[in-house]
Amino acid sequence: MWIEQNNKLYRSFEFNNFKDAFDFMTKVATVAEKMNHHPTWTNTYNKVEIWLSTHDAGDVITQLDEDMADAIDKL
């Protein structure tokens, strides 16, 4: 579930291992390129954290972020 935190959408994902986490990140990267909207994220072993905001709109949440979150949820 995405939560609003500091004018960003945030979600943490946990996987069985590093490879599964990295595979997920690769899928997110493909979506990000298609949408031309790139997340701020971190990866530590099996955990991926993602923050979404629109930099061009002043680092606030826009419909683009909502759409990106929906697309990520469908992976």
UniProtKB/TrEMBL annotation:
EC annotation from Swiss-Prot or TrEMBL: 4.2.1.96
Coiled coil: none
InterPro entries recorded: PCD_sf, Pterin_deHydtase
Protein's UniProt keywords contain NADP: no
Gene Ontology molecular-function annotations: 4-alpha-hydroxytetrahydrobiopterin dehydratase activity
One Pfam family per UniProt: Pterin_4a
Catalytic activity: (4aS,6R)-4a-hydroxy-L-erythro-5,6,7,8-tetrahydrobiopterin = (6R)-L-erythro-6,7-dihydrobiopterin + H2O
Highest taxon, organism lineage: Bacteria
A GO BP annotation: tetrahydrobiopterin biosynthetic process
Keywords: Lyase
Database matches in PANTHER family: PTERIN-4-ALPHA-CARBINOLAMINE DEHYDRATASE
Family label: Belongs to the pterin-4-alpha-carbinolamine dehydratase family.
The protein's name in its UniProt record: 4a-hydroxytetrahydrobiopterin dehydratase
Native organism: Taibaiella lutea
